[in-house]
Design brief:
This protein has about 350 residues and is an alpha/beta fold. It folds into 2 domains: about 280 residues, TIM Barrel (Alpha-Beta Barrel); about 50 residues, no CATH class. It has 15 helices and 9 strands. Strand 7, helix 12 and strand 8 form a beta-alpha-beta unit.
Length: about 350
């Protein structure tokens, strides 16, 4: 049994595939942290100080090892020029695609995250948390959507995917993906320069639930590799998130070079472990809605214990939800998740 570590030490050792005391825990709980706030969604998700304080209060309540700091999926798209809608009880969403058609890709302007309300809020919240607990806890400032998902927001998923299926718009699609890769890199470098421990790229649209593995390999993988090479180093790690059943592409996800792969409960755990053992760290895969939100404490324990038994041997595993937790997730279920890591996840 290893000597007890701080949360930061535990996470960094896990990600570096070094010996550590137990399985770390991430919560991906930004909606839980602000569910009781009375502000309008627009004011709430644009308030970096409030978001940071809410994350800090949650950490004091639960004591998890890793904080993923974000305010939804629309921040970087807003910085690129997309219009954002603020719906009651929901994180911000994109109102409509920015481009009328793919021929307009060259008209896109370089984003400025500091002048985008949503991006700026995440930057400010992340800095607040680094100042407060960054010497003890792994703080991940999320640079939002990866190249392919951001391209879907800017062009519209139907327009983009029809062009991909036809195979007649590759020049424009690749130009768009180069633009979105550069946008992500620009945003991620802000977090790296402020001393963050890592960042995360969400690629939900790259899931086999949405596109074929062949399309993933053509339109997603090269750009995931590009952003990884550009932002990741020995002290700043990229976490690559694809939800849905990623069993068919989990080996390709490992080829991105990302230090962390966030994966969902739909993915076969044994396949994920075989594909990534000794190469990268897995984060997940507890069902955020079915088990953690609606499940009993016994069901949470069963799911966490099974995940630890399959994924923890040899290291390279962070226990947490496979995607963002609903705002009304019962705190007692989160307590049980933390307890399982401490009871069943010791090395």
């Amino acid at each position: 049994m290893y000597e007890e570590m701080t949360s930061l030490e535990r996470c960094q050792a896990t990600i570096r595939l070094e010996p550590h005391d137990r399985v770390p825990v991430d919560l991906h709980n930004f909606m839980m942290t602000v569910v009781d706030e009375k502000l309008s969604p627009a004011k709430l998700y644009q308030d970096g100080q409030l978001l940071g304080e809410a994350q800090l209060a949650s950490w004091k309540r639960f004591g998890h090892d890793m904080l993923i700091v974000e305010n939804g999926t629309a921040a970087l798209a807003e910085a690129c020029g997309c219009e954002v809608s603020y719906l009651p009880g929901s994180a911000p969403v994109i109102e409509r695609p920015l481009l009328a058609d793919l021929s307009k890709v060259s008209s896109l302007k370089k984003p400025d995250p500091w002048n985008s309300p949503l991006c700026k809020a995440v930057i400010e919240a992340t800095q607040f948390l680094l100042d407060q607990i960054g010497d003890r806890v792994f703080v991940m400032g999320r640079a939002d959507q990866g190249p392919f998902s951001l391209a879907c927001m800017i062009a519209g998923p139907e327009t983009l995917m029809v062009g991909m299926a036809a195979g007649e718009n590759d020049e424009e699609i690749f130009e768009l993906l180069r633009y979105t890769s550069d946008a992500f890199i620009l945003y991620a470098q802000i977090f790296r320069e402020m001393g963050c421990h890592g960042t995360s790229a969400g690629e939900a649209q790259g899931s086999p639930d949405v596109i074929s593995p062949a399309m993933y390999e053509k339109y997603c993988l090269p750009y995931a590799q590009k952003i990884t090479r550009a932002v990741q180093n020995d002290d700043f790690f990229l976490s690559y998130h694809i939800c849905g059943d990623t069993t068919k592409i989990i080996d390709r996800m490992a080829e991105t070079g990302a230090a962390i792969l966030e994966f969902d409960y739909k993915c076969d755990k044994s396949s994920a472990k075989r594909a990534t053992a000794g190469k990268t760290t897995l984060l997940g895969p507890i069902d955020p809605s079915g088990v953690l939100h609606h499940g009993s404490i016994a069901e949470v324990e069963a799911a966490c214990r099974e995940a630890i038994e399959v994924l923890a041997p040899g290291g390279g595993f962070i226990l947490g939800p496979g995607c963002a937790l609903p705002g009304t997730t019962p705190p007692e279920n989160i307590d049980k998740l933390l307890e399982c890591a401490k009871v069943y996840g010791k090395y």
